[in-house]
Amino acid sequence: MYNTKSISNSFPTIRVYLYGGQVTSWKNNSGEQQLFLSKKASFKPPKAIRGGIQICFPQLGNHGVLEQHGFARNRLWSVDESPPLPDTTSDCHIDLILKQSEEDMKTWPHSYELRLQVALSPRGDLILTSRIKNKNADGKPFQFTFAYHTYFSVSDISEVRVEGLDTLDYHDNLQSKIRCTEQGDAVVFESEVDRIYLSAPPKIVTIDHEKKRTFVLRKKELPDVVVWNPWDRKAKAMPDFGAEEYKCMLCVGAARIEKPITLRPGEEWQGRQEISPVPSSYSSGLLDPEMIQQMQRI
Ligand SMILES: O=P(O)(O)OC[C@H]1O[C@H](O)[C@H](O)[C@@H](O)[C@@H]1O
């Protein structure tokens, strides 16, 4: 079917599908899966693969006239034969590229190159770098939004909290995108959540209390953050998602939505998301000082 590419840095391994340019698996040194992939995921067009890390381009959600989350996640990408040099010290990477198709030109009449580099750092961090270039020959600029829609695997959603988003404004997709302000010192999950946090700091942490694992997400040129869990009712309504699977996943991903990017012909934009899984020992509402020190060192 669709080609997969795997890279391995002795043990941490990553699987990337050419369909969607999507990372569908990321295992750490102990073979533990870091990303959620639905047991009911479809690997066939026109459905995007439910889980992993989806590349949303040139539109996120329904914030535009294109299909939900744009077309990039539903296209067959190619291996990039002339990739740019990696920004990391890693020599362990996969490079993919997506260019416009005749079909896409009907709805988004632009010539572009979207390059994606998926790299594993020497210590096992996952680094995604996207480069988007305007190749229009007619002199026209184009505008787009973008996201790494990242499905983390978690032990139990009720034991998870996301830190780094306190006091920020967000658009609440459950209330017609109205602008709200985060009141809590962390985001916790007791019902459906579907938000876009605006102008978030470059580091966001997702703490899985039960698993004692923290995902430290760092981002560049991607000011916003998508946070989503469908909860039970929506989970049941999605054909490619198990009714109970909402309990073991959480989407937290770097995005650029509020201020779309405009590129003139020849211009290039670059956006990056880096995830470091670190052990955490979070208990009773207080951060363990050892963990704070460890996170400061990262
Ligand atoms: O079902 P999908 O098209 O993959 O979208 C899954 C989710 O993605 C984002 O987080 C949106 O904010 C949600 O509204 C949407 O339900």
UniProtKB/TrEMBL annotation:
Annotated catalysed reactions: alpha-D-glucose 6-phosphate = beta-D-glucose 6-phosphate
InterPro entries with a match to the protein in the record: Aldose_1/G6P_1-epimerase, G6P_1-epimerase, Gal_mutarotase_sf_dom, GH-type_carb-bd
Tree of life domain: Eukaryota
Enzyme Commission number(s) from the entry: 5.1.3.15
Residues engaged in binding substrate: R50, Q68, R73
One Pfam family cited in the UniProt record for this chain: Aldose_epim
Record keyword Disulfide bond present: no
EC class of the enzyme, as a word: isomerase
Keyword RNA-binding tagged: no
GO biological process: carbohydrate metabolic process
Keywords assigned: Isomerase
CDD domains: D-hex-6-P-epi_like
TM spans (from-to): none
Family: Belongs to the glucose-6-phosphate 1-epimerase family.
UniProt protein name: glucose-6-phosphate 1-epimerase
Provenance organism: Triticum aestivum
